[in-house]
Specification:
There is one protein chain. The radius of gyration is 32 Å and the shape is globular. The strands form 7 sheets. Strands 16-17-15-18-19-14-22 form a 7-stranded parallel beta sheet, sandwiched between helices. Strands 5-4-3-2-1-6 form a 6-stranded antiparallel beta sheet. A 6-stranded parallel beta sheet has the order 23-28-27-24-26-25, with helices on both faces. The longest helix is centred in the last third of the chain and has 30 residues, at about 795-820. It has 5 domains: about 1-105, no CATH class; about 115-285, no CATH class; about 290-470 and about 510-520, Rossmann fold (3-Layer(aba) Sandwich); about 525-770, P-loop containing nucleotide triphosphate hydrolases (Rossmann fold, 3-Layer(aba) Sandwich), CATH 3.40.50.300; about 830-875. The chain has about 900 residues and is α/β, with parallel strands linked by helices. InterPro entries: Helicase_ATP-bd (IPR014001), Helicase_C-like (IPR001650), P-loop_NTPase (IPR027417), SNF2-like_sf (IPR038718), SNF2/RAD54-like_C (IPR049730), SNF2_N (IPR000330). Keywords: Hydrolase.
Amino acid sequence: MKDLYQKTIADIGLENQITLTEIAQAQMLVDNFEHVILSQGLKKISVLIATENESFRVSILVEGDSDCHPSLQVKINNKVTDWGVIGYTALLFLAANIDYDELETGIKYTRTGMRDRVYQEREIKAEKAEYIVKLANNIYGEHKLTNEKGIHYNVTLRDFSNKTGYIDNIDLKTNKLGTTKHILFLYKYFADNPQKFKKLKKSYPFIEIYTDGLNDYKISWFFPDKLTDDEKQLLKEYFGTKSCIEHEQTANFFAFIQQSFDYKRIKIRPEVIEKIEQHYSQIELQQLQATKTLDFSSINAKLYTYQRQGVEFSVFKTGVIIADEMGLGKTLQAIATAILKKQIFGFSKTLVITPASVKQQWVNEIEKFSHEKVKIIDGFPDIRAELYIQDDSFFHIINYETVLRDLNAINRAGYDFVILDEAQKIKNYETKTANAIKAITKKHALVITGTPIENKLLDLYSIVQFLDIYFLAPQWEFSYQHCIFDSKQKNKIHGYYNLVNLKQRLNQILIRREKKDVFEQLPNVIQKDIFVKLSDEQASYHMGFAKGIQMILSKKFKTSHDWTRLMLLLNSMRMVCDSTFLIDKETNISPKLGELSEILLEKLQIKNNKRKVIIFSEWTTMLELIGEQLRQDNLTFAMFTGKVPIKKRSAIITEFEQNPECNILLASEAGGAGLNLQVADTIINFELPWSPAKKNQRIGRIDRIGQKHKTLNVYNLITSGSFEMNILAGLFLKQNLFDGVLSNNEKIDSVNFNDKGKSQFIRQLEAIAANQDFLSMEADSENDQESKQQEQGQEHLQAVNELENLIDNIVANEASAKSAQNNTLISDDDYQQMHDVMNKGMDFLTGIFKMSTGKDLGTQGEPKVNIDRESGEVSITFKLK
């Protein structure tokens, strides 16, 4: 790459593309002005070139492949142009300043480049916004904006040159831009309405003391008009000759707050008070940690050394993630942390937010390891609201979905400590549930999860936001520091880098131990991939689904129906690898079932040694088919899925654990979340999940402290020559991301999805098509086919990119759907409302049916709709005559 830059510089001079005078002007600009690299990648680098009068955004692009005589092209302000003074300046500057060895496929933004990008995004939002404006009588007064939902925003302008201002919202507090779309809207409003601008007073009404987002939120002052002598003296005493104080001077600034009460023109923003309070709070925590000795006598368990260290790490911090590998006793550490916080800080209320399936398990653990009272908060909304406040139990337990409904009641109760168990629900930071959880008012917080990263680095960002909105914020800064972006799709991430630096930052709030590091006696886990061939019938279905995918990919324009269809086809390819019954509901051709019997009866000899085995499948129907096979093999089993009412689940687990004849548990993803099943020593994954986190969670059900078996076995059934091989390849890369941030392996500092990840995932799918003709269309002549490929190249590339984005969301979509299935307990009010709506719907459908056929549905005198209050299942009964 460096040679290409040098060659282009030489060619421009030799071919007289610019004059010697222009070359001299370019060199002068390089030597005398400060230029900034905005973003850089293997194929494109953008730089801001400064001149005496203005700045230019210049992009240098590589045209052609490295093996096919590549050349450089220049764009100035997004327009392709010939090499001139500005373009040549950029070329000289980049040739001297780019570290070519570090360039990756995709784009790494600089801080300035990413800041400009998000600033422009807010400008675009401000352009599109429609607010009703009520102006103050002063241009620098408090103006009121009202949006279409009737929400009011009070906005103050500060600096017209930088377009900064003040609004009391989370974006201004964390974005490090000094402005928001509301503030930018108001600046544009005055630019568009100069007559209104002229009518307002122009004197600045107060001396503003604020935290400056443009200067790392240091406490600053602003007043453009004349100060009195007393005001000058006070500001000089604390700020000196600068307009801000350093972070380490924050503690001394409390005296300024007290003195400022005597100065009417001084206005102190709430964020300043909050910053000072946080500073003193941290000092107090550090002093307590240095002087207090933790007393573990109130914990009814002997903690391992690493568990005590986890508690010691957590007690004296306001926000912590315990990310120990599954099976290391994170729940016990959380319970101990809560009890010790009660001893030291006088906390009286702890809220535990957990998946619905493990609420009772939390009760059992708390009662086992402590003397504290515990209460599951459930019932009707008014009952829950009363329990939050009046129940005197130290531990209150709710599931994630309850937070969205009860946020106001939870905040009125005023919890001291909030624990999140298995925080997958807040990894997508845009969901309503995630926003509700982050809005909970609390003093301290703890997240326990074995998988803080499932698929994306932003999973971790969202979890940290719950603990401390400032720690990794803003998101754009986090992104430029660690994300490699696509050169064409600006929101698409190719991979991650600088992970060692991120790990060092997280060391302040995150503690993770792996079994190999802390406990030599932990059972060994042996994983075995068992490859099964496709039957002819399965291969036929598989080929058909692949053809459907190819047809959608080849379309130039795709509708939302196409993408829904594509996701169904992808899942159908997975399902047919398990059994044809999942597709046609008639045949049951499944080589995996035969292999399963072989594993159970021959390899494990389950009838003779009575070992306990868990078999996982994502599809309940498949579990039922497995159950039929087990009955034929005369094997006793229990089934645990999301369909089992929550209150009855513990009985099934007890049956599996205590009945010596019940050797096998069939479990779905929804049913198995959060369970401790160390009575088992073997897991069989009937199909591989999309993400390594799900696979690790399954293994973690049995690989826990308390496991008595020395060797644990995990069998993965994989259909060779099928889509499952691509899932197997994709799991390896996502595990690398997980290890790069959270493991003790300092060698993993970057993960590039462009080479081995999502794009490779698609390329492997296409490779299968090439090798096995899965995706071949109607036969064309060789020449026609080559021509067609050339014509459709760009359309296909776009389709592949869109498919990658779809695959990104499959795991999250499946998890959301199964979570919804798993938490469906219905109140009387909800039941009656659902019953009325469903019956009215049936009346409507009955009428339509009769109008179109002249026949009745045969529902007279019979209940048309039945709703199971516990599972949420709705059944509709009618007869077709």
